[in-house]
Amino acid sequence: MQCFSFIKTMMILFNLLIFLCGAALLAVGIWVSVDGPSFMKIFGPLSSSAMQFVNVGYFLIAAGAVLFALGFLGCYGAKTENKCALMMFFFILLVIFIAEVAAAVVALVYTSMAEHFLTLLVVPTIKKDYGSQKDFTQVWNSTMEGLKCCGFNNYTDFEGSPYFSENHLFPPYCCFDRTNNTVVEPCTRDEAQGKNVQGCFNQLLYDIRTNAVTVGGVAAGIGGLELAAMIVSMYLYCNQK
After folding, report:
1. CA distance 194 to 173
2. Rounded distance, CA 201 to CA 26, Å?
3. What are phi and psi of 199, to 5 degrees?
4. What whole-number distance in Å separates Cα of residue 172 and Cα of residue 145?
5. What CA–CA distance (Å, rounded) separates 103 from 152?
6. DSSP state of 182
7. By three-state DSSP, how is residue 178 classified?
8. What gap in Å lies between CA 65 and CA 239, rounded to an integer?
9. Is 174 within 8 Å of 187 (Cβ atoms)?
10. 176 in helix, strand or coil?
C-alpha cells in the first residue's frame, strides 16, 4: 500500500507539471496567434529568431492542448482512481509514442523521400511568398541567418519570387562568405553561384548529425519518460480497488 500511495502521489505531481506546462503553452500560443506584434515587442530584443514564434502559434496551441488534456487525465485518473481516465491517458501516450517512433524511422530511413516531399511543398511557397508576405519572409531570414544557409535547396529557390522580381537580387544570406563570416552585397547570381551556400535542409541535417549524441539523448529521455508514464498508469489501473 505504501508503494502504491507513493507511485500515485508521484503520478499526480508529474501530471500536474504536464498540465501546467500545457496551460502555459496554450496561453502563449493564443497570445502569439492573436497579438503577435506585442509578443515581438517584448521578446524581439532577446532573440534574432523570435519572429519564428509568431508563425508557430497554432503549433503551440495544438501542443499545449494535448499536454493540457494529458496532464488533466493523468492527474484526475490518479487522484480519483478513475480507470477510464487512466486508460485514456495510457492510450493517448501510446499513440504519441508510436507516432514519434514512426517519425524517427521515416526521418532516418527515408531522408531523401522526405527531402523530395518537402521540396515539392516548400520551394513553391518560397517562390510565391518570399518578399511579399512579411512574416514568412522574416522567418526565412531568421532561419538562413541562424543556420548560415540559403533557401531550402540553394539560391535557385528564390528565382521568380516577389523579392527577386523586385530587386533582381538574391537574399544576402545566399552570398555568405564563410572565410570571414560576412555576407557579400549585392548578392547577384554570379556571387550566389560562387559562394554556393548550402540549402537549409541539408544544413539542418548536418547540424543534427553533428549533435547526434545530444539529439539522441533528448529523444531517448523523452521516450523513457513516456514509457515510464505508461507503465505507471497501467500499474495504477491494474491495482485499483
Report:
1. 13
2. 29
3. -70, 160
4. 9
5. 20
6. E
7. coil
8. 29
9. yes
10. strand
Cell, residue 47: 532573440
**99 burial via Cβ count (<10 Å: 0-12, 13-18, 19+):** exposed
Strand 182-183 to 176-177 pairing: antiparallel
3-state secondary structure of 196: coil
**220, 97 contact by CB (below 8 A):** no
pLDDT per residue as tens, the chain (241 positions) = 677 788 888 888 888 888 888 888 888 878 777 766 665 555 554 444 444 444 567 777 888 888 898 889 888 888 888 888 889 999 988 998 898 888 777 767 766 676 677 778 888 989 999 998 887 888 888 888 888 899 988 999 999 999 999 999 999 989 988 888 888 888 999 988 988 888 888 887 777 677 767 767 777 888 888 888 888 888 888 887 6
Rounded CA gap, 86 and 101, in Å? 22
Residue pair 201/154 in contact (Cβ under 8 Å)? The answer is no
Q: How many CA atoms lie within 13 A of 227 on its CB side?
A: 8
pTM summary value: 0.60
How many CB atoms within 10 Å of residue 206?
Answer: 13
Beta strands of the chain (E only): which ranges? Answer: 176-177, 182-183
Q: What grid cell was written down for 203?
A: 544544413
Cell numbers found for residue 68:
493540457
